[in-house]
Design a protein that fits this description.
alpha/beta; Rossmann fold; 3 domains; 6-stranded parallel β-sheet; two-stranded antiparallel sheet; 34% helix; 17% strand
Length: 238
């Protein structure tokens, strides 16, 4: 498997992300630097005096026990482990961010709520200078409905899209394999292409390893070179 098409773009992506994240996702926060340079595959500021702003680029939140009772129930079968139920609320996150000088965070829609984005949306509404959101694509929707939903959530403040390939339905009634994210005429492909026009990055979750999704990912990249793709939760399988 040739990864050169991915690895070659990683340093540039890091530099671009670090220099533009505060103006694109958090416009009220002072930009950390006006010029970024790539050194050894990592991004560094060209100005040693530039004020550094820390942004957490990927995290999840969910309601604590009291909030669940107040109107944020989890999706069926998606309750967090007991040890984590009361440690991932928005208020808990803000305490941790403040104690560690983290200025802002990108909240990725948690599986605990599936496609109900109410909890994350409310967090963004209450703290617009601290949070932005990445929505979770619903692969059961038609192409038209998926794009309509994408546009609606973008208007409500979401700035990126998460593709979880394990939520796509199986290819056949026997449950063999998964329908490809890049299936022609499908909602995934339509959303991926629309994201280029909306300038919204798409994060593809490769939890079971990149080889399982490599061909599918290449088809997405080729279908819309203008869309920014981010590979997330990428585990290596032996």
């Amino acid at each position: 498997m040739n990864l050169s098409r991915f690895s070659a773009t990683i340093p540039l992506y890091l530099a671009t992300t670090l220099s533009s994240a505060t103006t694109t996702f958090f416009p009220t926060i002072t930009t950390i630097a006006t010029t970024m340079s790539v050194v050894g595959g990592m991004a560094s500021s060209s100005s040693p005096s530039a004020r550094k702003v820390v942004i957490d680029s990927h995290l999840h939140v969910w309601a604590d026990t009291n909030e669940v009772l107040e109107g944020y129930p989890f999706a069926k079968g998606q309750d967090p482990p007991d040890s984590l139920k009361d440690v991932a609320s928005v208020s808990s996150l803000l305490e941790k961010m403040d104690s560690n000088n983290v200025a802002g965070a990108l909240i990725v829609q948690p599986i605990n709520y599936k496609y109900d984005h109410t909890y994350v949306e409310n967090a963004m509404r209450r703290y617009p200078d601290r949070f932005k959101g990445m929505l979770l694509h619903d692969p059961t929707l038609s192409a038209e409905d998926a794009v309509t939903r994408l546009e609606a959530l973008a208007l409500r403040g979401f700035v990126g899209v998460r593709f979880n390939p394990y939520l796509w339905p199986p290819k056949n009634k026997d449950g063999d394999g998964l329908t490809h994210m890049s299936t022609s005429g499908g909602g995934g492909l339509a959303v991926y292409r629309r994201c280029a026009e909306l300038r919204m990055p798409v994060g593809v979750m490769c939890f079971k390893g990149l080889p399982l999704h490599y061909d599918d990912i290449v088809k997405l990249l080729e279908s819309s070179p203008e869309t920014t793709m981010i590979l997330v939760s990428m585990h290596r399988n032996s």
